Amino acid sequence: MAWRIDEKVLRGEIDNRTPGRVSGRIWFAGREQPVLLDLAGNPWRDLAGHLLRFSNPQPQTGDLVGLADVQTGVVGDITASRKVKVPEVSMEELMERYAARKPFPWHWANSLYLEWFSESNGRVVIESSAYQLELEPAAAWHMSEAQEAAQRIANADATVDFMGRLGAAASAVAGAVAGADDAEDEEDVEDEDAPRSAAEAKADAEDARMQLLMDRVTARLEREGHAEGQFERICEEERERLRRERGEKPTVLTPEQEAERSAWIEEMNAVAAEAMADYEAGKWQDEDPADEHPLVERCSDLAVKLHQDLKASGWISEDDHSEHPLREITDGVMIASAKLAGALGRSARDEEWPPSALFAGNVLVRLKKARGYLRDAIRGLDSADEEGLTTPEWRASVRPEVTAILAETQDLIREVRAVLKDVNADGE
Known about the structure:
Structural class: alpha+beta
């Protein structure tokens, strides 16, 4: 999981006037001394050779315990020209539209994106379209287009290396757990997200791989546009690049497998086209609630209720940052409902539970993410208790609901892990 600390930034500077090295200082709200950067690599072409200063017009204080004073490591992606979608409505209206399943107006904007991998804190990301930027006009050196292409590959290699270390660690944990007593309770394991089987470790690694792949594809689409056929072409190119970086052999399909793959792609395209047509026609408004898994419905309804309660009570304002305890509660439940929907949608439609070994790994990854967000909501409730936020009655009514959803999610995780227990890493 990445450190995302953009809201806590006061000001900072990034210096790449020495080729192959990025240094810098970043000041944070509530922290006297700046965090120092000492990173190997270069940013994208727009910042290569330059000194960039930036400031945050609305910094927020927050917990930075554990963030090292000196960040030594490698550059991921650093640029001030990344395109992001910026909502044109307030957070309150955005939440209302989300609850009502309505689209919201937005526009593209340039965003400062600082990503690095440090020995102390792993992946760190600072991303904002609201910062004020000041770029020294004179560049100490210049990067050509060809050099930028090579640099982005080098930056991607740093990402792959980092993810590879995570995967190796997960595999080591999985191997240790595989030899442990089968009767060991989940609560006895320090890291509940650590894989319990080789199949689960493989599912976690595949999820990390897909996240990396989609991040790359998204970044290229933002730079190169969304013309027809662009997604398929870029996705195939990035998948091939990732395969080469990891030294994996190309997959050779038999004629039968190729035909099956082509048929599957056509089927997925048809399903996507039908879903888009239904959405544009407003058919999603007439969906039968019975098609939704009960736990998804329960979590989604709670998210809407929490949002409505906070809006009606005035306990939180639009200016309150995302780490405000009440936002941690509402955001945690809302995102958990989406993760649960992704995990349980198939079982709701097909009445298949527990899922077969073919789907169990993907389901488990999503369930563990939902569990993490529900725990965020519990931590938000703990902080609300300590600070006396809202009323005791409201907090007392919300906690059992979140706890019950978390407990049921935990039960589902155990059931899916039981499916994967006797499956080897190849899925057999």
